[in-house]
Amino acid sequence: MKSIKSPILLMALGLGLQMQAQDYSSVPPKESPMPMKPEMTEIWEPEVKVVTPGKQLGDAPSDAIILFDGSNLDHWVSQKDPSKPAPWKIVNNDHMEVVPGSGGISTKMKFGDCQLHVEFSAPDKVESESQGRGNSGVFLQNRYELQVLDSYNNRTYRNGQAGSIYKDHAPLVNAMRSPLEWNTYDVIYRAPRFKEDGTIDTKATITVLHNGVLVQNNVDINGTTFYIGLHNYPEAHGDDVISLQDHGNKTQFKNIWLRKL
Ligand code: MG
User: Domain 3-keto-alpha-glucoside-1,2-lyase/3-keto-2-hydroxy-glucal hydratase: where (predicted)?
Assistant: First the structure.
């Protein structure tokens, strides 16, 4: 057998043997440079801001912007012509209903990162099937569609049903209620970030609870929603409006509020 002559190799082998032989059960814990006290890991300032939660789950908390409370569409305009009022109808001072063919509606205000609460119901009268039933949508920053559809006993492509990020992410489960009941969406949205040259830096992310059930778990939004073709980020943008889609069905909305994040 060849003898080992390299002193470095011998040292390394020696160290390895020593490490193997070390019995850590007998090694006392190292002393901290300074003994820790409970207060040393307590942060007091600045004090956390107080927000009064709504009376019931789903009610707007005190710092929310109320975008629709059932009484009027003052926060909304026509998507086709933002100089015109929102063309949808208010029903029973309770909810709004899509007026098919009138076009979508958009908020007057623009938003980026936000927590959004929306309630919706499919039309009471069940008509058509697949994408033709109770179709609408919530477009974050006027681009990224959280699909609204009557997915109660209504098969369609999985990445186009209620709770999907349309043609991007199927919902984790189908939590849709019947057309006679109201549904809630609770959304946590982080806007995309762009590089100086206008290309995407960090994609938008979204978490969605549908009737309290997690359907999107902090997924990346892969770009502007297109009906045909792969999604991408064609241009940089800042805060933008939230819009609701007119897809030719009398879908209903109520209790819409938002917290800027
Ligand atoms: Mg839609």
Answer: 64-259
